[in-house]
Amino acid sequence: MAEPAGAPAPSPERYTLFEAAWQRTACPLSQLWVEYLGLGGTVDLFSLDAFLHGVMPLAPVQQDVLANAINEQLDDLYRAAKVPYLHTLHASPVGRDPLTVLDELFDRWSHGSADPA
């Protein structure tokens, strides 16, 4: 499905942005296309390839679906590269009111403790 008649073509920077992000994923075009279809994309493989190389426009909604597919690939790639934590982090102690915790920390700090934790 191409861009609707009369709709403006995306800027060259937009094509470049998509192509660069796709290249960072190192995802084969066929795999990206399957991901794109799974998210509701409706264009064929050749049209997707043409868009990624700046040859053919794509409807804005289809650009959003493609952006989602590429972003999911980037999330997977960079999630695997993140450094794991040694301890499980908790937002706040179970059953404790966050304002109470802040009051206790402030009291410790105001009574001369250099380390409020």
Compact overview of the structure:
With 117 residues, this protein is mainly α. The chain is 57% helix and 0% strand.
Q: What would your notes on this structure say?
A:
It is a single chain. The protein has 117 residues and is an all-alpha fold. It has a domain of 70 residues. It is built from five helices and no strands.
Tell me, briefly, the overall form.
Answer: elongated
Low-confidence stretches: 1-6
Bin the helical content: 55-70%
Q: What structural class do the secondary elements suggest?
A: mainly alpha
Q: How many beta-strand elements?
A: 0
Q: How would a textbook summarize the main sheet?
A: none
What is the arithmetic mean of pLDDT? 83
Radius of gyration: 24 Å
Protein name: CdiI immunity protein domain-containing protein
